């Protein structure tokens, strides 16, 4: 039986896939989106909703690997690695350690300092084109530190952000109380970024972008992609139910599930999953004015239209281990101590899979097997933030035009 032929296939309906579909449509391409589960319900639905453009500092930083043993001794701390998954993580952790060397770290900061302005300008452009302005607000971001010593320890990172053009101010207790009343008195040191942007709800925002693509002619197919094969005119996408489609362009934006599909084309990606946890409390649980980063504790509290989201922490546990919601409970317990009037009842717990590369840079690249297949995965904590820039770069690659940004740091072949 002949395989149906389509123009462009986008694998994944998370925020990266939604942006890729949007930008391909802007180039006049017809698009089919293929989603393995519920539309936009993966990692894109459970993030904090922060457009974190100033976050140019990678987690793989000098000294981070030496802090890890201390974190790992606390099963509910900011980093967890279940013993049953430790051996499988060794290759990824080795590359993570190498990415934290000073020269590699500096290169990543430089790449992010170029990526983030593109991400911001393209995001604002997409919001204007799609009529989603009401789903984004300028709340400002308040980074909080337990002590002057911990703020000083972060001063080099903040200086790098300032050098990259981001504006912020150091604030003391009186300013903190004005910016966010009701915080525990221990928080006397912070940084306020006035331009901090927040989407109303990450699921609603992503789903609205998918719906916009569909309203512009995109089709949606539910199914699990098992492999991609090059063809004379593009690529063939095979699904687990036996269906297959041939397309001139295929974009692999399957998040944490992208690794095995890329492998079907002979491309190796050391992609792992950071299992993120959160609890979303009902609206009104706390009079939250803006995004709060509790930097010494590895979690954030953000105001969404669906409620107050308390989330963060990293568990390196793959795709198959059951969730450990004690991590959500530990963050919520700390949030109650830091926000004394927080009403912590009635929350919804969530666990999702952040697709993370050891060097903290995504893969945005043609496949080594064929330029008809373009990879767009591995954004870690910055999928929402970098999504529009990624969509722009994907469309540039699909059109075989000069990308808006050099893709050399994002190539799949960097791990050979």
From TrEMBL:
<dbReference type="InterPro" id="IPR006076">
    <property type="entry name" value="FAD-dep_OxRdtase"/>
</dbReference>
<dbReference type="InterPro" id="IPR036188">
    <property type="entry name" value="FAD/NAD-bd_sf"/>
</dbReference>
<feature type="domain" description="FAD dependent oxidoreductase">
    <location>
        <begin position="7"/>
        <end position="397"/>
    </location>
</feature>
<keyword id="KW-0560">Oxidoreductase</keyword>
<dbReference type="GO" id="GO:0016491">
    <property type="term" value="F:oxidoreductase activity"/>
</dbReference>
<dbReference type="Pfam" id="PF01266">
    <property type="entry name" value="DAO"/>
</dbReference>
<protein>
    <submittedName>
        <fullName>FAD-binding oxidoreductase</fullName>
        <ecNumber>1.-.-.-</ecNumber>
    </submittedName>
</protein>
């Amino acid at each position: 039986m002949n395989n149906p032929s389509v123009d462009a296939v986008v694998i994944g309906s998370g925020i990266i896939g939604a942006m890729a579909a949007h930008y391909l449509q802007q180039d006049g391409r017809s698009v089919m989106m293929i989603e393995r589960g519920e539309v936009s319900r993966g990692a894109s639905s459970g993030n904090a909703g922060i457009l974190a453009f100033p976050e140019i500092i990678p987690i793989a930083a000098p000294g981070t690997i030496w802090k890890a043993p201390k974190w790992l001794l606390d099963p509910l701390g900011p980093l967890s690695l279940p013993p049953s998954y430790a051996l499988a993580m060794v290759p990824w952790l080795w590359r993570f350690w190498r990415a934290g060397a000073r020269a590699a770290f500096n290169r990543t900061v430089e790449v992010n300092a170029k990526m983030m302005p593109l991400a911001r300008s393209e995001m604002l452009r997409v919001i204007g084109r799609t009529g989603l302005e009401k789903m984004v607000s300028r709340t400002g971001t308040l980074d909080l530190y337990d002590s002057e010593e911990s703020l000083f320890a972060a001063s080099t990172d903040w200086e790098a952000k300032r050098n990259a053009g981001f504006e912020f101010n150091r604030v003391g207790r009186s300013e903190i109380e004005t910016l966010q009343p009701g915080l525990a008195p221990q928080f006397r040191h912070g940084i306020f970024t006035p331009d901090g942007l927040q989407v109303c709800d990450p699921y609603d925002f992503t789903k609205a972008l998918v719906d916009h693509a569909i309203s512009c002619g995109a089709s949606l197919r539910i199914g699990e992609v098992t492999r991609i094969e090059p063809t004379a005119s593009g690529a063939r996408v095979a699904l687990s139910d036996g269906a297959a489609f041939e397309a001139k362009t295929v974009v692999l934006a399957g998040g944490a599930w992208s690794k095995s599909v890329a492998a079907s084309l002979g491309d190796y990606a050391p992609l792992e999953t950071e299992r993120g946890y959160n609890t979303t409390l009902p609206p009104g649980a706390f009079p939250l004015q803006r995004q709060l980063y509790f930097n010494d504790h590895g979690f954030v509290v953000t105001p969404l239209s669906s409620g107050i989201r308390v989330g963060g922490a990293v568990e390196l546990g793959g795709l198959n281990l059951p969730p450990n919601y004690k991590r959500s409970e530990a963050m919520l317990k700390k949030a109650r101590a830091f926000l004394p009037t927080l009403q912590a009842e009635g929350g919804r717990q969530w666990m999702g899979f952040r697709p993370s590369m050891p060097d903290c840079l995504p893969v945005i690249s043609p496949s080594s097997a064929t330029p008809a297949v373009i990879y767009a995965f591995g954004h870690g904590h910055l999928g929402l933030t970098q999504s529009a820039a990624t969509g722009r770069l994907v469309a540039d690659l699909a059109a075989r035009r000069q990308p808006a940004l050099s893709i050399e740091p994002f190539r799949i072949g960097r791990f050979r």
